[in-house]
Amino acid sequence: MARPEPARVLCALAAQLAALSIPWAAIASPPAAVAFAGVGTKVELSGVAGGNTLLSPGAKANVLVFFRADQERSLDALRRLVACQKELAGEGVHWVGVVSGTASTSEVKAAISSTGVQLAVLVDEGDKLYDKLGIRMYPAVAIADAKLVVQIVEPYRQLDFTDVVKAQIRFVLGEIDKAALDRALDPDSSRLPGEGDPAKKAMRDVNMARRLIELGQYEAAVTQAKKALEQAQVPAAFPVLGTAYARLGRCADASRVLDQARKAGLDSAEIAAARALCAGK
């Protein structure tokens, strides 16, 4: 599904953090009282750093950014969210970062500093909030409305993550209606026949296949990678398909596909890792 590229969601992070001025000591301990909630349920994150409230009842939208400080994909998302913070500054958007209870304080601080994003950070002890909202991949964003009720949980997408988040924040802010949101989330559906870009559609399928591999859903990853190649012969699909085959123990298929990747001029760690899975088999 095609999605726009919103920088709005992450741009509010920097401005809001500066306003909060929550000390870094706050990330060393979890909040005293947390009501863990899924979509449609009220969330409260309070008790951090001597009573500071991480969520803001006065904000029109509270954005929770779940990330890993040691993951390049998370760092890339944080960098892109900086522009989003700037774009949404002054529109009533409040930002909070959420990291696993096992996260290193020094790594989290370094991640915030290196990306330029501004976030108050909650350390989620026992990963309870992650579990309650079904966060299984990093990064991801959850958006709560002015009543602190979670409206949206959005997983990471490599191609258009910030655009998707921005559109959803605007929807929660009441700036766009449901029809406009649907158009933003699936712009291809409003295009004339033949106007779409097959290569871009294929890459979305490649990225989905990669996520399915991370989730251990290898058969589904094979299907998704093949779908990408049906859209367009994008070279990036071959190592992903080869990895899925290798994970399934289908090493002959993996070798064939990885040879196609080599013929396409690819020479990556992803290919080497996929071949290693079948070494000696």
Descriptive report:
It is a single chain. By secondary structure, the chain is an alpha/beta fold. The chain has two domains: 8-188, Glutaredoxin, CATH 3.40.30.10; 198-277, Serine Threonine Protein Phosphatase 5, Tetratricopeptide repeat (Alpha Horseshoe), CATH 1.25.40. 47% of the residues lie in helices and 13% in strands. It is built from eleven helices and seven strands. The protein has helices spanning 8-20, 72-88, 105-115, 128-132, 161-173, 178-185, 198-214, 218-231, 237-247, 251-263, 269-277; strands at residues 33-35, 44-46, 61-66, 93-100, 120-124, 140-145, 150-155. The chain has a five-stranded mixed β-sheet. Strands 1-2 form a two-stranded antiparallel sheet.
Could you give the count of β-strands? 7
Main sheet: strand order = 5-4-3-6-7
> Main β-sheet: number of strands, strand sense, barrel status?
5 strands, mixed
Structural class, please?
Answer: alpha/beta
CATH topology of the largest domain: Glutaredoxin
**Uncertain residue segments:** 1-37, 46-52, 190-195
Average pLDDT, all residues = 76
Give the count of structural domains. 2
Shape: globular
Q: Which range best describes the helical content: under 10%, 10-25%, 25-40%, 40-55%, 55-70% or over 70%?
A: 40-55%
Which key terms come to mind for this protein?
11 helices, 281 residues, single chain, 47% helix, two-stranded antiparallel sheet, globular, Serine Threonine Protein Phosphatase 5, Tetratricopeptide repeat, 7 strands, Glutaredoxin, alpha/beta, disordered N terminus
